[in-house]
């Protein structure tokens, strides 16, 4: 009985969550059918589907997607690797923190997009600039969260490990790394989403390929359907990236008994 | 000890400035791309003296204030509504989460199509950036209010509005302030982006974009230092507010 009841509630809540997007879609369709706005500004939904199909079929979409993904991967790997190393160094050694911490904090104050003119003068508008820009974006959250994760490892853990005569390597591998891992994953997650954001941003500002470029280009042609398709794809990739880390995180943190909130 | 630590923190920046200066003296770096430290300082002084710098800071700050006020208040409202009403949450949250997946910068071309490259477009773009962190954190804060508080308030037959003002909002305040801090720093980042792309009517991003086009790295560097400093001050202002409110609440 209660199962049926629960299913009903779930079905109702699911139908409610579809109400808003469907309602918007109906409004959108109505607005474009009644020509309330110029057709260039509010493209009918069906036109967007058609454009999506066209862009997918002639390869434009995948070519741009591939370029964007390659940039993100390169920048993310470089930036998060350096961030991990720096964060771990600053967390483990007070000396490293004293030397690097203040400079790191000062540099972090520059908003990400503020780097763009600097990097363009330095590196031009090619792929180098974009990869470095994405790397800078991925670097900060990774460094910050790794640092905090390592620093907040309970001192008792370390004392117990020392009491059992663990060496530095074993301490690092069996105590500090696992204890800091949840925080490292938070950093990884943030780094990936900021990397995606920076890649799109760099492409919107200066590029000749990639999804960000595609939407800029659509705008210049006043082809709003292309812009919409691009925005939707960018959102979907962002969502996929966020979900990509879930199984990895669940696997690496499977020892954690409190873990599981994320599935709920 | 702590003074010694502070001194060690200065080592790396000083080293970098020394390297910069040496690279300039040894003519390793092209002066076109990299101006000397002295030249950058002189540019800073000149921009300050001519009033150009302050004019641009003012233009950027004004946009941030407008966009932030608009976006954060809408976000606050949505967050409270989603936190208070289960039905409203079910209706809006999935769409909210889906829309949140698109990086704000991805909306920029659309904003330009809809609103042009003038002032409204920039302010709406900034407002969109301020909206999401405010809504997200307010929602979380309101949802996280301990059930006991509400039960006690209900036992005392506290009205809905009074409960919101005297129980729910104060309890959710730390989370709301965190959201507002994120909103403000996002706004500050996006104003630079907006000004880099839509080149009109001043602003720090505008100044930097012009510096870049003219290959005047000194202007770009001054711009970076200034946006960093202003961002730092804004962030700390809200942190101070958070600390003060936290001690008052205790």
* Low-confidence blocks of residues of chain B: none
Judged by helices, strands and strand pairing, the structural class of chain A is mainly alpha
Shape annotation of chain B: elongated
The CATH architecture of chain A comes to Orthogonal Bundle
Average pLDDT figure of chain B: 87
* Main sheet characteristics of chain A: none
The end-to-end distance of chain A, rounded to whole angstroms, is 23 Å
Tell me what the CATH architecture of chain B is: Orthogonal Bundle
List keywords for this structure.
heterodimer; A: 264 residues; mainly alpha; MetI-like fold; 10 helices; 81% helix; 0% strand; flat; disordered C terminus; B: 250 residues; elongated
Strand and helix layout:
The complex is a heterodimer of chains A (264) and B (250).
Chain A: H1 2-33, H2 45-57, H3 60-92, H4 94-108, H5 115-123, H6 127-151, H7 155-163, H8 168-205, H9 211-220, H10 224-252
Chain B: H1 2-25, H2 37-49, H3 52-84, H4 86-100, H5 104-115, H6 119-143, H7 147-155, H8 160-197, H9 204-213, H10 217-249
Helix pairs in contact in B: 2-10, 3-4, 3-6, 3-8, 3-9, 5-6, 6-8, 8-9, 8-10, 9-10
Question: Summarize this, please?
Answer:
The complex is a heterodimer of chains A (264) and B (250). In chain A, 81% of the residues lie in helices and 0% in strands.
What does this structure look like?
The complex is a heterodimer of chains A (264) and B (250). Chain A has helices at residues 2-33, 45-57, 60-92, 94-108, 115-123, 127-151, 155-163, 168-205, 211-220, 224-252. Chain A is mostly helical and 264 residues long. Chain A has one domain (44-252): MetI-like fold (Orthogonal Bundle). The longest helix of chain A is centred in the C-terminal third of the chain and has 38 residues, at 168-205. The two termini of chain A are 23 Å apart. Chain B has helices spanning 2-25, 37-49, 52-84, 86-100, 104-115, 119-143, 147-155, 160-197, 204-213, 217-249. Chain B is elongated and about 75 Å long. Chain B has one domain (50-249): MetI-like fold (Orthogonal Bundle). Chain B is mainly α and 250 residues long. Chain B contains 10 helices and no strands. The relative contact order of chain B is 0.13. Chain B is 85% helix and 0% strand. Chains A and B meet through helix 1, helix 4, helix 5, helix 8 and helix 9 of A and helix 1, helix 4, helix 5, helix 8 and helix 9 of B.
């Amino acid at each position: 009985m209660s199962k049926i009841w629960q299913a009903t509630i779930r079905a109702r809540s699911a139908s409610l969550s579809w109400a808003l997007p469907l309602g918007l879609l109906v409004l959108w369709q109505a607005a474009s059918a009644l020509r309330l706005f110029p057709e260039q500004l509010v493209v009918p939904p069906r036109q967007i589907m058609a454009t999506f199909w066209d862009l997918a079929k002639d390869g434009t979409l995948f070519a741009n997607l591939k370029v964007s993904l390659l940039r993100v991967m390169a920048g993310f790997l470089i930036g998060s690797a350096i961030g991990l190393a720096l964060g771990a160094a600053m967390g483990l050694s007070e000396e490293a923190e004293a030397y690097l911490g203040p400079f790191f904090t000062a540099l972090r104050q520059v908003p990400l997009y503020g780097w763009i003119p600097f990097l363009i003068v330095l590196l031009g508008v090619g792929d180098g600039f974009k990869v470095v820009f994405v790397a800078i974006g991925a670097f900060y959250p990774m460094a910050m969260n790794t640092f905090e994760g390592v620093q907040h490892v309970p001192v008792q853990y370390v004392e117990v490990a020392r009491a059992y005569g663990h060496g530095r390597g074993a301490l690092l591998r069996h105590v500090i790394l696992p204890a800091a891992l949840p925080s490292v994953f938070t950093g990884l997650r943030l780094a990936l989403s900021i990397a995606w954001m920076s890649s799109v941003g760099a492409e919107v500002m200066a590029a000749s390929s990639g999804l960000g470029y595609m939407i800029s280009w659509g705008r210049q042609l006043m082809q709003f359907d292309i812009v919409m398709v691009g925005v939707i794809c960018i959102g979907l990739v962002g969502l996929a990236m966020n979900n990509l880390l879930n199984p990895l995180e669940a696997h690496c943190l499977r020892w954690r008994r409190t873990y599981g909130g994320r599935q709920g | 000890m702590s003074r010694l630590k502070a001194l060690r923190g200065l080592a790396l920046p000083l080293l970098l400035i020394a390297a910069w200066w040496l690279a300039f003296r040894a003519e390793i770096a092209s002066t076109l791309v990299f101006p000397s430290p002295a030249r950058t300082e002189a540019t800073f002084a000149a921009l300050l003296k001519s009033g150009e710098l302050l004019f641009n800071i003012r233009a950027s700050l004004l946009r941030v204030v407008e966009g932030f006020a608009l976006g954060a208040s809408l976000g606050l409202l949505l967050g409270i509504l989603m936190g208070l009403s289960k039905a409203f949450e079910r209706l809006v949250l999935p769409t909210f989460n889906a829309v949140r997946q698109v990086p704000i910068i991805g909306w920029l071309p659309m904003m330009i199509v809809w609103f042009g490259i003038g002032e409204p477009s920039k302010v709406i773009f900034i407002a969109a950036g301020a909206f999401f962190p405010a809504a997200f954190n307010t929602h979380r804060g309101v949802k996280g209010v301990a059930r006991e508080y509400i039960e006690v308030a209900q036992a005392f037959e506290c009205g809905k509005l009074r409960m919101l003002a005297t129980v729910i909002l104060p309890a959710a305040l730390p989370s709301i302030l965190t959201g507002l801090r994120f909103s403000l720093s996002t706004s500050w980042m996006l104003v630079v982006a907006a000004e880099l792309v839509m080149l009109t009517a001043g602003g720090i991003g505008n100044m930097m974009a012009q510096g870049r086009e003219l290959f005047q790295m000194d202007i770009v560097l001054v711009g970076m230092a200034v946006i960093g400093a202003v961002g730092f001050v804004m962030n700390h202002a809200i942190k101070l507010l958070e600390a003060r409110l936290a001690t008052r609440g205790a």
